[in-house]
Design a protein that fits this description.
This protein is of the alpha+beta class and 280 residues long. The chain is built from nine helices and seven strands; from the N terminus they run H-H-E-E-H-H-E-E-H-H-H-H-H-E-E-E. Keywords: Hydrolase, Metal-binding, Metalloprotease, Protease, Zinc.
Length: 280
């Protein structure tokens, strides 16, 4: 509450005037009633909202500056969890790639569990038991891609080797380039998921539709997660180019770590170091 203690009514009204505008809103109605009825309700209850042509909010696209070092945060989890999490900022307009979904293709390759995969290699070395990768937009101006690796005790002790193997795998993907069959597989899976998945209902589904309307064309906003247009090799290689050690924040979680620092807001203990030199 410290940040709000000097906020009076006028500050609140000024905030409302600046940002509360119809051009910054999206509306989705989901019900058993007819389209004409819902259109009438939308007009009745929402047409009075003023459109003051409020400008879009600009977010700085770079929230983690490039640095020739492995930035490592160590944390003690509440649960018994051994994990290595790699976070890569993506300072790009993420939403524009909705039709080619390079982040889903990358996530499926990195998170693959079959023969020849990164996970199968780490398992053979006795370093990991699970691995997942996922990318998503955080704002209209940037997103991120994360890799989470469930470690064994040996993996915790040899986390630097795990990092080395991860980047060797990413380097291999960069050398191989874009493979069209991977897009075709994801497109086929998207079609199947659209047919057989739960269509959802209630407030959360309406919220999801409204959120999508703010960023995607209206005609596909309700099904954008399943929609694939044409492959985009350039977008794929662009995302892959950001998966580098100097563009990464690494978090190691284990109950046996030394964590002398204390976080200000939640009083959580942690450690931080920057690994440079030959180790980098």
């Amino acid at each position: 509450m410290e940040t709000l203690e000097k906020v009076d009514r006028q500050v609140l009204l000024d905030f409302h005037k600046k940002y509360y505008s119809a051009n910054q809103m999206a509306l989705a109605l989901l019900s058993k009633y007819s389209i004409p009825e819902m259109e009438e309700w939308a007009t009745t209850y929402f047409s009075a909202i003023e459109n003051s042509q409020a400008p879009d909010i600009d977010y700085p696209p770079v929230y983690l500056s490039e640095k020739e070092a492995i930035r490592l945060i160590g944390v003690k989890p509440i649960k018994d969890k051994k994990e290595l999490a790699l976070e890569f900022p993506l300072p790009i307009e993420y939403y524009q790639y909705y039709a080619s979904k390079p982040e889903k293709i990358l996530g499926s390759i990195i998170g693959h569990e079959g023969k020849g995969s990164l996970l199968s290699f780490l398992k053979e070395k006795g370093l990991a038991t699970g691995l997942g990768a996922n990318g998503a937009p955080d704002t209209p101006d940037y997103g991120s891609l994360g890799i989470r690796i469930s470690l064994t005790e040996k993996g915790v002790q040899q986390y630097r080797d795990v990092l080395k193997y991860c980047f060797s795998y990413l380097d291999m993907l960069k050398q191989e380039g874009y493979q069209n069959y991977l897009f075709d597989e994801q497109k086929t899976m998207g079609k199947l998921e659209e047919v057989y998945s739960d269509k959802g209902e209630g407030a959360w589904t309406a919220i999801s539709f409204a959120n999508n309307l703010a960023f995607y064309p209206m005609e596909i906003a309700h099904r954008v997660e399943y929609y694939y247009g044409e492959p985009n090799p350039d977008a794929y290689m662009l995302l892959l180019s950001y998966l580098r050690p100097d563009n990464m924040l690494c978090v190691l979680s284990d109950s046996g770590l030394e964590t002398p620092e204390e976080e200000f807001w939640y009083k959580s203990n942690y450690s931080y170091e920057e690994i440079t030199g030959t180790a980098y």
